[in-house]
Transglutaminase family protein
Amino acid sequence: MKIRVGFEIVHTFWQPTPLLAMLNIHPSREHDLLTPDTIVSEPHVPISVYLDDFGNLCSRMVAPPGDFALRADALVADSGEPDVVQPEAEQHAVEDLPDAALIYLLGSRYCETDRLVEQAWRLFGDGPTGWARVQAIVDYTHERIEFGYGHARSTKSAYEAHEERKGVCRDFAHLAVTLCRCMNIPARYATGYLGDIGVPKDPAPMDFSAWFEAYLGGRWHAFDARHNRPRIGRIVMGRGRDAADVALTNVFGPNQLKSFTVWADEVAA
Amino acid sequence: MKIRVGFEIVHTFWQPTPLLAMLNIHPSREHDLLTPDTIVSEPHVPISVYLDDFGNLCSRMVAPPGDFALRADALVADSGEPDVVQPEAEQHAVEDLPDAALIYLLGSRYCETDRLVEQAWRLFGDGPTGWARVQAIVDYTHERIEFGYGHARSTKSAYEAHEERKGVCRDFAHLAVTLCRCMNIPARYATGYLGDIGVPKDPAPMDFSAWFEAYLGGRWHAFDARHNRPRIGRIVMGRGRDAADVALTNVFGPNQLKSFTVWADEVAA
Amino acid sequence: MKIRVGFEIVHTFWQPTPLLAMLNIHPSREHDLLTPDTIVSEPHVPISVYLDDFGNLCSRMVAPPGDFALRADALVADSGEPDVVQPEAEQHAVEDLPDAALIYLLGSRYCETDRLVEQAWRLFGDGPTGWARVQAIVDYTHERIEFGYGHARSTKSAYEAHEERKGVCRDFAHLAVTLCRCMNIPARYATGYLGDIGVPKDPAPMDFSAWFEAYLGGRWHAFDARHNRPRIGRIVMGRGRDAADVALTNVFGPNQLKSFTVWADEVAA
Amino acid sequence: MKIRVGFEIVHTFWQPTPLLAMLNIHPSREHDLLTPDTIVSEPHVPISVYLDDFGNLCSRMVAPPGDFALRADALVADSGEPDVVQPEAEQHAVEDLPDAALIYLLGSRYCETDRLVEQAWRLFGDGPTGWARVQAIVDYTHERIEFGYGHARSTKSAYEAHEERKGVCRDFAHLAVTLCRCMNIPARYATGYLGDIGVPKDPAPMDFSAWFEAYLGGRWHAFDARHNRPRIGRIVMGRGRDAADVALTNVFGPNQLKSFTVWADEVAA
């Protein structure tokens, strides 16, 4: 399957403004790029790139005053397979986890494990472990939070989403990540493209999506607490401890978002 | 100058319990170790070590049920110089920062930059930049928070410490780190030994200390918002985004802290 | 397309012997794993895993005396697309390369840039840059070296392969990598599965394959100096500066390789 | 003790030339900097910095045509203690080494472990392990190689130095590193300032020095196969697998070294 993905984001600035962007497709999908995934700005400015500690491809630039557009448009090969479901994937004992997974057991900006650990053990301590435990967490999160674009708030944490019972896809991901970590399952936040492939078209304007990954049976598996079903065509852009690590843009100065368009569509072979 | 540092920490466990410890002297002080800095457990268990993403030396072990002691005792060479003061150290424009410093501009578990950014700019936006700005943040934090061991709370964040106006050394560090980041100065949390060298003896039982580092003039500088004066003999153990990254121990199971002793004393040459 | 990949490797040891293995599919293909990619040993020993500095998934174990088998067998989703050809991909000026790419300009164990730099500039200095330059290097390497399994030697370097004009796939990769680096194009060594998919069946027993990646137009592209044609179904296991970084096994003691089988076959959907 | 260190290096270029420099004091000595360790160029060009995978502080710049000088001059606090000698430091079994140390067992550009492993076992296989084994390797290297500035060759490897029996400090380090690795002791190359402190003044013009570090008893220890005695005042600039990783400058274009001065002197308190 081939998927065409891209975006156009326009900000207005009043002064030269440094900008970090995490808007490239993740390097782990590099081998699937059928056309270049190049970020272009208008007006043109030099863009330098670097890999952060999580392996994400980041861009740095200084935007001039005025309207400033960032665009990309790429064709990506995809297996067309839905998210792998592997119910037999086991939970590792903490002492058996690889060192690099341990950081994903700790608290982070929007995932306050210290505030949800008792609740987590009350809910999931008597249930099964491994894949079934993560699925139970996904089910709980899916039920607990009511989806609505009006519920977005940039400072909202997992604990707050759990209390308020309302949120957007990032809140679903934060809550499920936090509960997994409380139950000693490494979990990390993921963001990227997720088009309406193999599912009815969502009437809302397309946005980037957030989901999460849990470490079970020796590897990371994608889970999606908002949709709570295997999906086709996730194309990851960033991974990190939570949304603070993978903001699509970090703008260091006053700005206004003028327009925002995202696409991710299957292309006829 | 030679400084003898060490600790004894005893936990009680009721079942075999995985444990992460960040109790070694930081690798950046390895060349100053005059005797080995070896962590020994009683009863003896195998301890494996790894470096985390921040360069800290971490230990993993599984503690058996019963009382479990961790101890270390080492002799460290030190220049005996107080923290360097470099008022001419300049603040870098965001676009001139090295890539690796950028993560220390973002929010983290206990440093909610998104909740303090307006306050930070109100307080420090009109003042000087660079070293003087960090010093102004240190002064503000030092005044804002009243120190008291009774004010410790493991879930307390910078925002909460700012509201409650009470805290311990980690809260001073978190608040100053957060304000620096809001003002586009990379700042990171540091923890380690800080004995009463060159200052009157603190009558309270000795504990590990927390301070912070700010990136100015092309390097990281130590600042201490609790003491607000240059100190002699800081021996760093861990550095990270905040206390969530550098917990001295992370225990994965029920436990009770039975005793806790820390020392850091100048030794006669 | 689905590809079934796996191996069985049997060593004989005479004493307990520590072993490093880089025999998992690379984490960048984790999202394509339709079944677990678990390494199993016979007799069973505990295997611990870690990520090295290049992002490869490595395994550590201690093999007991006697015959010791390592096996894996996994089903992998693949786009079925041949290696991307992007002749317009440009060479970056050295000053525009991301920091993380710079290490792939330097010399390494089997890639003696210092010994081939003059030759490289004589051959490719007047030609085109970017994709065409890498293709010219691939063509030259493909012509220069005569392939033959009898020409394998574990200590053979790019310089030696160039002199001797004989080698196996790793020598093709080393020479092309070295020449690219000499011409200021970051290049890294890659190894993994490459089945006979879309090409006539190779009558020789299947082995793991080695190829290389060059950094052009903002991303890494796969090139194969041995086959010198786009191939379908590369499944990368390891990437590094050269073969020294990505040995499939590093055995720390006397041993004998008893048997070795590798497979990578398209599976009917 | 305070040590004043610095350098002036002047190249001549004929065209704008990208340059990598590893000329800062290593971040592990940051806390000892009493004055800024800033690299200044003449004519002035922008210099950007980054940390490489080994934790070294690297600088990037583009030098203009003509004479181009790089200078630094800093005051560094030092304990004044000679290199620590710890004869009881044990060699770790390979299976007990931390993951991050394993890369320092493998071959690298100038350290061909595969070509020296048999020789190493013949020489050191029957002797003691741990500290005494490293000291035996240092003694052997110190005797094996005759020092002389005329013996420097940028392509010279450990194997070649062993055969030719002549070399400079980097060859001593490469040979000792290689032999340690062959004996399963992680070893890495180090370079930096080493003034004539506590030893008779060397009449030769001062240069940067190379030594090595071996991993014993849970930490890295400095050894110096050229001088074969504990020294005072080593100030490390770079660490890596061998000299290929820590070249003080990597110049991407034709150039001529016009002058070169280094200093490292004890300063009266």
Notes: Chain B has four helices and 14 strands. Chain B touches chain A at residues 18, 20, 50, 52-53, 58, 60, 62, 93-95, 99, 102-103, 105-109, 111-112, 114-115, 154-155, 184, 244-245, 247, 250, 252 (CB under 8 Å).
